[in-house]
Structures are given as structure tokens and as C-alpha cells.
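User: Hi! I'm working on a homework problem where we have to compare a predicted structure to a textbook description. Could you give me the structure for the chain below?
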Amino acid sequence: MRNEDRSLALLNSIHAALSKYVTNTPPADVFNHLLGTLLELTDSEYGFIGEVLYRNETPYLKTHAITNIAWNEETRQFYNDNAPNGLEFSNLKSLFGDVMVTGAPVYANSPQSDPRRGGLPEGHPPLNAFLGLPFFKGDKMIGMVGIANCPNGYDEALTNFLEPFLATCSTITESLRIDTLRKLAEEELQKNAEEYKEHLESQVAQRTQDLNASIVKLKDTQSKLIQTKKMAALTGLVVGVAHEINTPLGVGVTASSFLREKFTSFFKEFQNNDITKNKLEAYLFDDTSS
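Assistant: Happy to help. Predicted C-alpha cells:
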């Protein structure tokens, strides 16, 4: 492919990837599109596009797109289970690990003898050439691409050619990070709103319960007050009735005492035979003047 044709194909692929991303195409599809273009334009056999993250200040790679190079049932199952959510690689003593450690491109056209090589698991497809390229946001490395097995190897001219591609990967990766942070913030806000709602409902329920208890207490106090007023009114009535009864009763008692004294005096005189006609008439007709 001529250089002009390659450049045009690269720009068309970048435009298509950005269009896919802004129209909410799943990020995995966008990165798979970019990886397919990268492999085609560099005549590479397999590769990956990944994000560089940190765990306890140690970098590791999480893939957004990776070629399926499974070589047996076990690796095929592992790929199917984990690739959709991103595979993680943390071995820094490897060709791609050196990219994360140094933040610089790694050219390995004779990887078998390269001291940075970490080795391949048994059954892994052969690695005849490797190119690892970091991409940045400002001066911070946020990801890298890795491609392998171009028949003619890799050089700096290819790296220069791929600069717009790396810039696109950086833009989409950073946008994904921002979108992830936004979603986390929205989830946290929603969580806080729900917790505040639950707290508010709990407060309203507690205050309603307190208010109901206050109303019950108030009604009880009101009932007791009414009973107290009734007792006070009843006491007044009893006192009034007692007064009305005691007055004539007192008069009766006084009259009875007076008559008893009169009778006692008269009876003594009768026993002593001192009764005269005048005394008898005085006693019978209550003539106190006699």
C-alpha cells in the first residue's frame, strides 16, 4: 500500500472511530475497530490497545481491545470470560512492561534475544517482532498499543506515521475516564439523595410519632383537668348543700337541747313535789317569764 493510501486509510479509520464514539457506540467496538485498522496498516499479526492504570503506585495494563490468540481450550475459555471486561497485565519485566516503566517506545525486532523479554507461555503463538507505543494526556502516560509480527519489523518511521492514531486513542481513553468519573459522581449523588430521603422520612416518622405521643399526653392532661374541675364543682355543691342542711339542723339541735334541759329541770321539780299550777302551765305553754 502506498504511503498516500495508508495515510488516507488511517485518517478515514480515525474519523470513523470518533464518529462511532460520539454516537454512543460501545467503547469495546470503537477500540476493536481501531485495533483492526492498526493491524492492517502495519501488516501486523496480532496486538492490543490498553489503558495504563495504577495499583499502589505500580502501573498495570488493562486492555480495551486485544486479538484473540488463544491456542487451546483453556486460553479460549479465559479469553471469552475476561476479554469483554478487559484483560489485566502487570508483569513489568516484559516488552510491554518496559513501555509502562519507561514511558518510551519499545522496538524489538529480535525479541528472542532481547533482554527485556519476559518469555511466553507454552503454546503461545511465536513472537517474531514487537512494537510498543505509549500515548499520553499532557505529560502523563494513560495507555499504550502493542503490535507484533510485522514481517519487516518496526521502526521509528512507523511510530511517526501512527502519531494521529495514538492521539485518537488518547482522546477516547481520556473521554472514557471522564465519563466514568461522571457516572460515579452521578451514582454517588443518587446514593446520597436516597440516603437523605431515607433520613428525612425517618425524621418525619419520628416527629410524627412524637407529635402523636404529645397529642395523647395533652388529651390525658385535658381529661384530668376536666375531672379536677368536676371534682371542684362537686365539692362546692356538697359544701353548699351541707351548709343548707347544717343551719336548720343546728337550730333543731339547739331547740332539742333547750327542751331537754327544760324537761330535766321540770322532772327534778316533779320528783321533789315542787310543781305548782303556774310552773306546770309555764312548762306546757313555754312561758319563760314564769
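For your comparison, note the following. The beta strands are 46-55, 58-66, 88-89, 106-108, 130-137, 140-148. The first strand starts at residue 46 and ends at 55. Good luck with the assignment!
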